[in-house]
Design a protein that fits this description.
about 0% helix, mainly beta, 11 strands, about 120 residues, about 55% strand
Length: about 120
Amino acid sequence: VQLVESGGGWVQPGGSLRLSCVASGFSSSNYIMSWDRQAPGNERDFVADIDRDDIITYYRDSVKGRFTLSRDDVKNTVYLQMNSLKPEDTAVYYCQARNRITRTLYAWGQGTLVTVSS
């Protein structure tokens, strides 16, 4: 069971990045897939999650309208498209899989660093 994130990097304010999270050893379609982030010196915060039916998707207020979470169950992959990035979006972004009923954490990745600066 593994989640591997990629797509992080450095971008100027206003730029875009797309993060990917590839699941192996299990079918991500059976789980709520989510992204958290942790900025230096801060606690880890929820960013967004998506249910397997793609009907229910939640975002933290500060990223609404800028970030879009999607999933490709054929590729067992979840994507976080991040547009209009701000310096305060700088953080390590972590992908997670959670049980759909209990929301218990099932799998998590090692994170990918996003740095937004000029």
